[in-house]
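## retry 2 of 3
previous attempt timed out at serialization; input unchanged, resubmitting
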Amino acid sequence: MTFPSDEKLMRIAELSEWLSVHKSTIYKWVEQRDFPKPIILGENDGAKNSASRWVEQEVREWLKERPRGKHFED
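## retry succeeded, writing output
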């Protein structure tokens, strides 16, 4: 799989800070299939030399689709 060079890949720490949630919350969302899956760089067997990165644009699209609170009808 190839990505355009202008696609920004985000580390979990950046993502956590940007969304103001704990890292474990992001991993929980991914596990629940409620958040974009990361791209695994390196071996995908849990090895220490692998790294997870998220495509910023996918996260932005996810944010756009999120509800923004309850809307009450008068």
